[in-house]
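Q: Structure tokens for this one, please.
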Amino acid sequence: MGKVILAGAGPGDPDLITIKAAKYLAKANVIITDRLVSKEIIIRYAHKDAEIIEAGKKGHSNNSTRQPEINQMIRNFYRPGCILVRLKGGDTAFFSNILDELYTLREHNIPYEIIPGITAASGASAYCGIPLTARGLSNSVRFITHYRKHEQPATYWQELAQTDDTLVCYMSGEQLLSVLTQLRQHGIDHQKAIAVIEQATTPMQKTTVYHFADLPYAQYNFQSPTLIIIGKVVNLHPLFRWKENSGQTIPYFNESIGEYPLSYFACH
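A: Here is the predicted structure, written as tokens:
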């Protein structure tokens, strides 16, 4: 009968893809993949005759594909009897724009299946030795994102500053200074720390830890993708980290040419 598979590819390390997603890639006729999905995943798991189409968002880059275009791709490339895999970075449920694609599939009566993946928060916290919840430190986690164009009221920042929940900020690297300034202005506990994880779970992973008590007022410049963890649990990082920071400085996705450097594929 065929169908569209909406699958999460995991946070970066090709070994972190699920077995079920790998099985569908092995029999897919068409794969529409986010640009930040490791090409090693395609090399290892995709059917040799599958048509590979790169599509996805990359910040404000001109290389980005708009969501309506991706929706149209799914319509154009799906045929009855075809297995089309829409491969998304991380998990399908976290900031993945899956709702737009689900509406497209329902509107055109295209059968589909959703396969979860390891989200960036889980991958980054594990590879940094930072449990997102820990007895006596945090009982809950909040997944948020922050864009400059989406200004939030003061009550929003005050609530985030006062909560004991661990905060995980997706896609907020460029707005890190704004996020930290707002939290500090609204009285966040200085015992909490900030972990900035660049390119989590890849050979270029780099983790930088800051404390609110001694944060400089300066603009930060981190390589995308960047995930931010804020809370008392971050103080566990020096004790339980098992992966050292990479000495490599090349970002694993080169925006200027739209490709990954070969060094990215030298995974563990």
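A few notes: The beta strands are 3-8, 30-33, 51-54, 83-88, 112-115, 141-145, 166-170, 193-198, 206-211, 226-231. The radius of gyration is 19 Å.
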